[in-house]
Amino acid sequence: MSLFKDLFKKIIRKRKPDEDTVFVKGKPKPKYYGTVVPYPNFNANSDASILQSAIEKDEVDHDVIITVLVKRSNEQRQKIKVVYEASTGKSLEKALKSALRSDLEDVSLALLMDPPHFDAYLLRKATKGFGTHEHVLVEVLATRSNQEIRELKRVFQEEYQEELEEVIKEETSGDFTTALLALLKAQKDESVEIDNDLARKDAEILFEAGENTKGTDVSVFIDILSKRSGPQLTKTFQHYAAVSDISLPKALDLELKGDIEECLIDIVKCSWNKAAVFAEKLHLAMKGHGTCEDTLIRVMVSRSEVDLKKIIEEYRAMYDVSLQEAILMDTKGHYESVLLGLCGAP
Predict the structure, then answer these.
(1) Does residue 168 contact residue 180 with C-beta atoms inside 8 Å?
(2) What pTM did the predictor assign?
(3) In 3D, which of 261, 258, 265 has the Cα closest to residue 233?
(4) Which of 36, 208, 227, 297 has its CA 20 to 30 A from that of 303?
């Protein structure tokens, strides 16, 4: 698999699936890798009152608002929203829009959305306006569970009165559309068990559909890459190296071009090490002149209760600097404080 590692220039480190599970009373249970945890002794009424006071001061108390938002879990924030509106007659979102500005406003409003609504919002934003943000579509659909995809589709239809599949058909084209629609079916195997025979068979099928034929049967790549689990695909990559002189990602690079190439390679990278993929996105968002705030907010908020701890670990291993240090160098003010808070800063 050295060619695979070389292709990504050591950006994507090998995953260790055995580290993702603990056993409680003899039963496997996924480890929690989020940086945001439920606040002990939580009181929605008290928090709503504290936020109201901070917002209505002559000078908005940004520090108090930040502390409440980043130190409460998403579920707790939803309860605060309900109490706030019941006690003030105004939604917390509208209150924060009036009180905050720029990036601080954007990240605060993102934190108030539950995961399905945030994902639906991201896809809406990626498909409306000038141009389509293909990388966001792939990021969301390639990294969410089947249940999360079903939920975001439901919310998307409720919020925007459109079926997400129809929007994808209108805003994208060709094989890229086919790949996105395949991911939207939410049929990925989520088992951690590996079928070695299936991996060997898939590797041979992919070889025949790509390198060993004139042209490329993209539908075969889409079908396998959108349905197999991460551990299963990792085993398939190993078998592919046995039947080909090059790695599967390199084959995709040689055989395909454009959005579909990026889409399938991203699926491959996510199956290999999802946390490292997000670490790379954060690094690129802060690399060079300017900062891509949309990426920072999207990744930090969406992964804060999923795997941000792992992303932080991967970031240091990949770039020899901590994510927190990178944030300190590239952002400032209260917005910086929110991002550091999401990293788990006290």
Answers:
(1) yes
(2) 0.91
(3) 265
(4) 227
The 10 Å CB-count burial string (b at 16+, else e) for 145-184 is eeebbebbbebbbeebeeebbebbeebbeebbbbbbbbbb
Strands (E) in the chain, as ranges, are: 21-24, 27-30
Place of tokens 């240090």: 325
Domains of the chain: 44-100 (1.10.220.10)
Cα–Cα distances (Å) from 53 to 50, 63, 144, in that order, read 5, 12, 37
Dig out the tokens for 121 from the structure. 């919002």
In this structure, what token pair is assigned to residue 189? 């195997």
- Cα separation, 178 vs 208, whole angstroms: 20
